[in-house]
Write a structure and sequence with these properties.
Elements (H helix, E strand, L loop, with lengths): L5 H20 L4 E4 L18 H13 L3 E4 L3 H9 L5 E4 L3 H6 L4 E2 L2 E2 L6 E10 L5 E3 L2 E3 L7 E5 L3 H9 L3 E6 L2 H9 L5 E5 H7 L8 E3 L5 E9 L5 H18 L8
Parallel strand pairs: 1-2, 1-3, 9-10, 9-11
Antiparallel strand pairs: 3-13, 4-5, 6-11, 6-12, 6-13, 7-8
Length: 257
């Protein structure tokens, strides 16, 4: 019997490693893009100090055997990376465009709100010297068609309902702070943004002429969405992930809205 040389042993070990590789690849790190928005206490855009939503997402993944890595890019880039199969999941609202492109948790044929990651409120902001108000789903002080409402770029959860209500929408701002600067400078008539983002941005003394209306436009659920077609074993793990998120989200340690 021929005794393998050291060289032959090394070659065997190398190819054994190649054979093992695909098995480990199935258990690779799950790449999740959550955008680079800072929405304390939900998202902190700081890997050293994750927000509550980030903690829920990663802990739920750990519980079901999905090791997650959170990527923080502008929302348009997150979407582009997801569409080009460079990501495994993305944090988005179930807008018409997102429902067409991504998979959300479902129940009885509809998006399962019970397995959302977080629910946020979209609030109106105006200049203090303008007469506009929002009352029981109706604009007071003008007709929607006569006004331009500012929102963040790629924030379809805000722009889609605004367009449906008949408003003109300016979604060119790269941040809520930038959008509110445009509002203060009279380049748009109203602003619409996530409540926490507005609260953080309005600490700027230059925005002190702005006020938040007492009634919000709506509440929007954000989900960890994945690709439409997944292998059955991966689909099962994702379903378990969504369910774990729903259990953790309302626990005392991680309670969100």
């Amino acid at each position: 019997m021929k005794v393998p040389t050291l060289r032959n042993l090394l070659v065997l070990i190398f190819f054994a490693g190649m054979a093992i590789g695909p098995v480990h690849a199935q258990e690779r790190i799950w790449r999740v893009c959550i955008s680079d928005a800072s929405v304390p206490p939900l998202l902190n855009n700081d890997p050293a100090n994750p927000g509550l939503a980030e903690k829920v997402l990663t802990e739920a993944g750990r519980q079901v055997g999905l090791e997650t890595i959170l990527l923080r890019y502008p929302s348009p880039r997150c979407r582009a990376l997801m569409l080009s199969d460079q990501l495994d999941a993305i944090l988005v609202a179930p807008s018409a465009a997102n429902l067409a492109d991504f998979q959300f948790p479902r129940k009885a044929g509809s998006v399962d709100a019970g397995r959302r990651l977080v629910r946020i409120s979209l609030v109106w902001v105006k200049r203090a010297d303008t007469p506009y108000d929002w009352n029981q789903g109706q604009l007071v002080g003008a007709s929607p068609a006569s006004l331009v409402v500012g929102s963040r770029a790629a924030r379809t959860a805000a722009s889609e309902p605004l367009l449906a209500l008949g408003f003109h929408v300016d979604s060119s701002a790269n941040s809520t702070h930038q959008m509110l600067q445009k509002l203060a400078a009279r380049r748009v008539d109203l602003g619409l943004a996530i409540q926490e983002e507005v609260a953080a941005a309005m600490r700027d003394p230059q925005l002190q002429n702005l006020v938040v209306l007492s009634q919000s436009l709506s509440s929007v659920d954000y989900f960890v969405a994945v690709h439409q077609q997944l292998p059955p074993e991966v689909q099962a793990k994702v379903e378990a992930w969504w369910t774990a998120i729903s259990h953790l989200r309302d626990s005392p340690e991680y309670r969100l809205r």
